[in-house]
Amino acid sequence: MGDWMTVTDPGLSSESKYISQYTSETKMSPSSLYSQQVLCSSIPLSKNVHSFFSAFCTEENIEQSISYLDQELTTFGFPSLYEESKGKETKRGLNIVAVLNCMNELLVLQRKNLLAQENVETQNLKLGSDMDHLQNCYAKLKEQLETSRREMIGLQERDRQLQCKNRNLHQLLKNEKDEVQKLQNIIASRATQYNHDMKRKEREYNKLKERLHQLVMNKKDKKIAMEVLNYVGRADGKRGSWRTGKTEARNEDEMYKILLNDYEYRQKQILMENAELKKVLQQMKKEMISLLSPQKQKPRERADDSTGTVISDIEEDAGELSRESTWDLSCETVREQLTNSIRKQWRILKSHVEKLDNQVSKVHLEGFNDEDVISRQDHEQETEKLELEIQQCKEMIKTQQQLLQQQLATACDDDTASLLRDCYLLEEKERLKEEWSLFKEQKKNFEKERRSFTEAAIRLGLERKAFEEERASWLKQQFLNMTTFDHQNSENVKLFSAFSGSSDWDNPTVHSRPRQKKPHGAPSGSPVCTSKLTKSLPASPSTSDFCQTRSCVSEYSSISVLNTTPEESKPNQVGRECTNQKWSVASRPDSQEGCCSGCSSTHADAHIEKDDLP
Amino acid sequence: MNFSEVFKLSSLLCKFSPDGKYLASCVQYRLVVRDASTLQICQLYACLDQIQHIEWSADSLFILCALYKRGLVQVWSLEQPEWHCKIDEGSAGLVASCWSPDGRHILNTTEFHLRITVWSLCTKSVSYIKYPKACQQGITFTRDGRYLALAERRDCKDYVSILVCSDWQLLRHFDTDTQDLAGIEWAPNGCVLAAWDSCLEYKILLYSLDGRLLSTFCAYEWSLGIKSVAWSPSSQFLAVGSYDGKVRILNHVTWKMITEFGHPATINNPKIVVYKEAEKSPPLVLGRLAFPPPRAAAGPLSSTESEYEVASVPVSLQTLKPAADRANPRIGIGALAFSPDNCFLATRSDSVPTAVWIWDIQKLRLLAVLEQLSAVRCFQWDPRQARLAICTGGGKVYLWSPAGCVSVQVPGEGDFQVLSVCWHLSGDSLALLSKDHFCLCFLETEQGVGTAFGQRGDHM
């Protein structure tokens, strides 16, 4: 409230100033007093005057009034209403001109004041409305403030709650952790206790065992014995040898021999695997060189110096490759060289392929936006529309035919009617024929149009293809031109990577190997044992073995006068071709019965012997 | 597929000789040796009591019959029927007996694992090995029969002794970093020994023949660990099945894990073939009901037939809810076996007892799942090819090969509940064992069929 007061204070004070000014003026003019009385009732003098006299000036008090007015006016700075007196004693006369002037001036003043008052009033009004508005605003803002404060408090409360919860959870987690720790400790302590007890018991048990052993041994148990009719010779025909230091040494020797043999075997296998892998690597390298070098030719002519290093490297390698079989030496430098060159080329190939991929995708994207495709779509739409029309026409014709036939079928035997109908029909037929021919013509036209459209579409397709080919070749050309620089780039990158020792180059090579291996392995004609696993694990047994036995079953059962027919066994054989299909030969009773009967007769002699048994 | 007649059997004791020529089976106290192809009885031996264990010597010349209750081992010779040998462990008792690879020594484990007695058939010598450890798999011979690895326990620590089988000399002796060694197994090449801790701790250790620790592997801590272990025939892979329902495959170069096979109860991948055994009520075709009904039809075929169906993914398998409060919970990989060609791995998760998972080792992915109607009892690979025989304790035997699956009803009177299967060395025949019977199933090659015909012709 205080704020508001201070804001509106100057206005108020100015207003009051106006009023006070005004009242002081009205004191002077009794005529205007009437109108101003309401406003300024606080003036005691005028009030008194008013109460005592109905009018300010009467016949009797003209002189006094005048003098009073003069006095008043002079105090307000107006010229005196009296003429200039020549002498002190002489009574001064009323100056009419001055009175009039004064009056005029007062009137002017009055008007001005009225205007000012009006202005002030409007301003007051304005200010009042402004104030109202501001008050409203204030109230609204206050409300907003209140709500936001409340919201804030709510949020704070929630925050607090969440924090509380969090704290609780933390506490719980901690408790749980403690619990886990405790439990683990308990487990551990129990385990140690258990182990300890176990050990104690075991010791006791061992003592007992020892004692028992002694007892058993000491008793000179007659029963512990072996009765043999006669001793048999050793399996190897040798005689038992005495235990000496020599035999011990021999045993050691043998053990190491066995171990050595095992290691040698494993080493051999690893060597073989290595050789295999090397072969594959070599093959890969060769193929890479052959794949990459022709592409190098063109750019080389243009930008000889820039790509020189890579190409020379490759050629060097190629020369090396053709030169000899240093590959057999698994010397470290050679190995490094090989892997490095492969890696290099692989990188080149990879970037190349990636770029090609990018371009292909780009081409595709562009291709889809191409105009010719859209026009083709239009064509397709058109042809579709036409086809639809043709279909409709056909349908119409069909319905007409149907109607016709119906009419024909329902032709009554009444002669006249038939006659009538006949003529009618003839007419109709004629019309229909006409229509028919028209339709046919239309159809033909449609067909023709359609054909032309399809032809156009095909043509467009061909054109597009040619265009794309052209584009591809152009891109390739451009790309090849580009790659020369890229090679340089890749070279740089590679060098950088070599320095930084980043392993991200190694990974792609590793990942790519299996992919590369297959296609290259096949032509090399050595898929036999690329890895140890496949080598030592023989190929999974051919299903034919199983089939064979199965077929034997059917064969046997069919021979041995059983109900199984070849048809019955056939589906099984067919089913065996694909294991994923349902195949169950579960217990065919008839064949088994047969088997059973067959067997029982087979082993008739066994039966007899069996009977001998209790 | 032909089936032999049904013979009597007790305690599931039926074994083919290592050379594949004979088949030994036990009926109470009698040991019957038959010709594996004709099933004619070659020899018949009578022991002193109920036989509880039999084993062929490696050269197929002798058979050992253990009578644990009496603490006796009786050995029979196939060549000389009159030859006999009886080993009495006396009051020390007997809990296990086995041949040494040379077929001239017998290793007897006494009660309470006091000692292992090595009896020689060549000389009268007896040697003792003290402190053998009582564990799941404490004795293992290398495939070539040269070395024996033995788990031992002394002073509350686990040790492994490697002995030379030819003269029983100690070659290496080393302690293993295990809490409680549960088993040891040689790699088929005889150069690496895998040793694993008890199920309380997931730990597998790999030792070289000369006792060096090659590597250790631990997949996780705290929860129950290893349940089963299998070497691939090429010694390249070591499959470790654990209680978390996963099989982890280690490689032989770095001994690190190559892959992990989970056994989820739902199969979503459409590439995986799920064979589902489905019951099929025998179709009642009136026209085929002959009168009088054929002999077999009147017999035991009342048991419902079943066949395999290829289920379309996703398939959810029946899972058992394990009782967490019991010891030895029915979870984890209880059995796993590599096919002889290394290409496949068959596994069974004990929480999904009706299913057999078959994994492709070349591609390291799940290839097929066989869901049976009842819990899988055992499975065994054909020793010659990738063909798996499965039995579920019902009247059928199931065969899987990469080409597909078959279920075959075992013919015969009465229910023949196949509890175990045993392949012949050649993969031509399969012994099916029930509680007190066995029969042979001939997965004939052409030759086998021929001989069967010949036999039949002779006797008709």
* Largest sheet data of chain A: none
Mean pLDDT of chain B: 86
Most strands sheet of chain B: 6 strands, mixed
At CATH level 2, the architecture of the largest domain in chain B is 7 Propeller
How many domains of chain B? The number is 3
Element-level helix/strand string of chain A: HHHHHEHHHHHHHHHHH
By secondary-structure content and strand pairing, the structural class of chain A works out as mainly alpha
Shape type of chain A:
flat
DSSP strand tally of chain B: 41
Shape of chain B: globular
Q: Portion of residues in helices of chain A?
A: over 70%
User: How many E strands of chain A?
Assistant: 1
- Tally of alpha and pi helices of chain A: 16
The pair of chains with the biggest contact is: A-B, 88 and 112 residues
- CATH fold-type name of the largest domain in chain B: Methylamine Dehydrogenase, Chain H
Count of alpha and pi helical runs of chain B: 2
Strand content of chain A: under 5%
Based on CA atoms alone, the radius of gyration of chain A comes out at 62 Å
pLDDT < 50 stretches of chain B: 285-303, 446-460
GO cellular component, one term (chain B): MWP complex
Organism (chain B): Neophocaena asiaeorientalis asiaeorientalis
Protein name (chain B): WD repeat-containing protein WRAP73 isoform X1
GO biological process, one term (chain A): cell adhesion
Short précis:
The complex is a heterodimer of chains A (614) and B (460). Chain A has 614 residues and is mostly helical.
Walk me through what this model shows.
The complex is a heterodimer of chains A (614) and B (460). Chain A starts with a helix and ends with a helix. Chain A contains 16 helices and 1 strand. Chain A has 614 residues and is mainly alpha-helical. Chain A is flat. Helices cover 81% and strands 1% of the residues of chain A. Chain A has helices at residues 2-28, 30-37, 44-52, 62-75, 96-218, 245-302, 304-323, 332-369, 371-409, 415-500, 506-524, 532-536, 543-559, 566-577, 589-602, 604-612, and one strand at residues 225-228. Chain B has 460 residues and is mainly beta. Chain B has 3 domains: 1-130, Methylamine Dehydrogenase, Chain H (7 Propeller); 135-262, Methylamine Dehydrogenase, Chain H, CATH 2.130.10.10; 267-280 and 306-409, no CATH class. Chain B has 2 helices and 41 strands. A 6-stranded mixed sheet of chain B has the order 29-28-34-33-32-31, with no helix packed on it. In chain B, strands 1, 2, 39, 40 and 41 form a 5-stranded antiparallel sheet that branches. In chain B, strand 39 (420-423) and strand 40 form a beta hairpin. The radius of gyration of chain B is 23 Å and the shape is globular. The two termini of chain B are 21 Å apart. Chains A and B meet through helix 5, strand 1, helix 6, helix 12 and helix 13 of A and strand 1, strand 2, strand 5, strand 10 and strand 13 of B. Strand 1 of chain A pairs antiparallel with strand 10 of chain B, so a sheet runs across the interface.
